Amino acid sequence: MTSADHALPAAAPFHLSPIVAGAWRMADWGFSPQQRLGWIEACLALGITSFDHADIYGGYTVEALFGEALAAAPGLRDRMQLVSKCGIKLVSPQRPGHAIKSYDTSRAHVVASVEQSLRALRTDRLDLLLIHRPDLLTDPDELADTFSRLRADGKVLQFGVSNHTPSQLAMLHRRLPLVTNQIELSPLQMGALGDGTLDQCTDLGLRPMIWSPLGGGRLFTSDDAQARRVREVLQALATQHGVSVATVAYAWILRHPSRPLPIAGSSRVEAMREAVAALDLRLPAEDWYRVWQASMGHEVA
Could you tell me the superkingdom of the organism this chain comes from (predicted)? Predict the structure, then answer.
């Protein structure tokens, strides 16, 4: 049976908050369940209603940590969107059947991953499921049909991909409409601007989710020439606009016409507030290009 043969309810409208909260490092925060709940509530108070997960985060532990906190205030579930990713198989005590690190988008693995995420997060549905990395053995018809069945069963409302090339996204999108590609973009990582990834998102109306918008911290800690050039420009713009350097970095990403959705993954509420502040700062095109030029180390051609 193909996805075309499997009757589907109409897809729910796609909505994520303009800043997404990332839970990648939650296992490293050392938070108690009550502290985790406090972080969730603080994000919601800032208007950050979308939370980004992956089954592998924290060695397959983060979803359960989040779910434990959410269980203390289950009424919050209907105020948020839960995003998860699957498809990477890590060698881990949590998954003793994994012999080597590999990718797997087979029906059995995707369905099992979704079921495990639902149990860990203590929810009956995922608002969005992404394939975490391109699987070279993906059967797009089987995967599209798997997605269709998960949606028909009410377990996943929308689907997307992460770290996929334009051709990889297009192959699956032709079979079942996707809603996003979660990709890396920051003032230190410009690849998606030139390889067609953001062009495709703009063309198809798919809002890209952005991971490592601050360069994984390199924006503030690295002493290489690129980071120094970019910091100097960002600091000048931050002083000009009366905001933090992080806020300018987020604003630089938000300025792209694909309408990106940056993922902010800090345990500090103030850092999450800096991300939200970028929603009120629209950089002029020349300032955007000043950051681009500092990162690339040359003027536009």
Answer: Bacteria
Active-site residues, by number, are: 57
- How is residue 273 written in tokens? 């507030």
Write out pLDDT tens, residues 140-193: 999 999 999 999 999 999 999 999 999 999 999 999 999 999 999 999 999 999
Q: Rounded to two decimals, what is the model's pTM?
A: 0.95
For the chain, the average pLDDT equals 95
Local confidence band at 301 (pLDDT 50, 70, 90 cut-offs): very high
Residue boundaries of the structural domains of the chain: 15-179
Alpha carbon distance 29, 27 (integer Å): 6
Which has the closest alpha carbon to 69: 44, 43, 40?
Answer: 40
